[in-house]
Amino acid sequence: MDPIDFSLYLVTDRGLLPQGKSYLESLEQALLGGVTVVQIREKKTDTAEFLEIALQSKALCDRYKVPLIINDRIDIALAVNARGVHLGQSDMPIDVARKLLPKGFLIGISCNTLDEVRRARESQADYVGLASVWDTQTKKLTNVPIGVRGLGVMLEALDGSEVRAVAIGGIKSTNLIRLMHGSVSATNHGLDGVAVVSDIVASHDPKGAAQMLKSIFIACKKST
Ligand code: TZP
Ligand code: MG
Question: Which residues form the Thiamine phosphate synthase/TenI domain (predicted)?
Answer without folding.
Answer: 8-200
